[in-house]
Amino acid sequence: MIRELLCPVKKVTPTKMKNLIISMLIVPFFWSCGQNGGGETTAPENTSNEVEQALTPGQEGVNNGESTPNILQVAVGSADHTTLVAAVKAAEQTTALANNGPLTVFAPTNAAFDALPAGTVESLLEPENKMKLISIVQFHAAPGSYDVSQLKDGQSLFVASGHNIKVEVKDDGTYVHGAKILGTVKASNGIVHVVDKVLLPN
Length: 202
What we know:
Layout: H1 2-6, H2 14-35, H3 48-54, H4 71-76, H5 82-90, H6 94-98, E1 103-108, H7 110-114, H8 120-124, H9 130-138, E2 141-143, E3 156-158, E4 164-170, E5 173-176, E6 179-187, E7 190-195
Parallel strand pairs: 1-7
Antiparallel strand pairs: 1-2, 3-4, 4-5, 5-6, 6-7
């Protein structure tokens, strides 16, 4: 698009000009995210359509298809985390999960939410329970970047809700607050650990 603007023999249509402006706005944001990333990228690729369908308009929902996805985009791109994304949206925490970080997020699967008592999720998504939902969402996020190898048995992690959660390393894997880590995805602004239970404050 920039090449087309510099070439005098080609006419720049309003559509092309609009696309150029959009691309110029997007590039600085992803350059910022990339500076905080590192290591091998294992995050799934999100399409812009997937993000637009899952989120309200905002910079945190933009993906150019080339940069490493941030934590929010990793969640949006996972079919197993649609309930988590809905909870993050209702709690208005989307921007927090898309910021530079670093942040470690423990992401319960849809099955983990389904295992809660009947009506729990629906109740939490009600506007009158927003503050409680915010606390629960923040209970799943720890400042800093912690890979599985850095999580030690007996370790206490401070999370964004102001609580501490306990790490347990057992023969069959690593657990946080009683939830087992099923897999790990590296994002541009931290790490996402997929867990089999919803973490709830005691």
